[in-house]
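Record passed on underneath.
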Amino acid sequence: MVSAFRIISYLEGISYLLILFVTMPLKYLFASPEPNKVIGMAHGFLFLIYIVFAFLIKSEKKWNVKTLAIVLLCSIIPFGTFWMDGKYLSKK
């Protein structure tokens, strides 16, 4: 399940960066909202899956509430999911 969460966290992080740095400028600078709708829908779906998986992984990885909160917070910080993967999910 951890490997699936790693994939979801990467996809969620990439979709978030696409929204911030590609589709939002397209929407507001070039009046092209269509890419934002498509990527935004995908990101919303991935975000929800990320949250569900974080709660499912909590017991498997034996995270305390503080660690779970950090993992959840990483989903709303740009590049946060990539840092979280290295800190809490990668095999050491």
